[in-house]
Amino acid sequence: MPIVHVHLRAGRTPAQKKAILDGLHAAFVEALKIQPDDRNQLVHELPPEHFESRYGPDAVFVEANLFAGRSADAKRRLFRLAVDNLERAGVRRDAVLIVLHDPPLENWGIRGGQCAADVKLGYDIKV
Length: 127
Hints:
single chain, 127 residues, 2 helices
């Protein structure tokens, strides 16, 4: 159940933004084994005067909050797949920065206000 924030400079077309979101989601599904319909993505477009990056104006910053438990290898696979997919969407490989935040289950309120540590998720997060 990741919540994925994508930060980018304003100016991309709707098709380009959709390709970025689709590519990221596919990487999360494959690498972290999230459910294909478990999609929570937000695009934050910033005007040029509010977006500076050493990676250039076409940089894409990805921040994802996800349940703790994924292995370092699964995260490495996610990084690689995400960059591969974003490159196909027209983003330079070296213009992608990904940061994962994985707080423990007891820090998540889900499914009508239940603590995620108390809920049978229906899938494995130990990948």
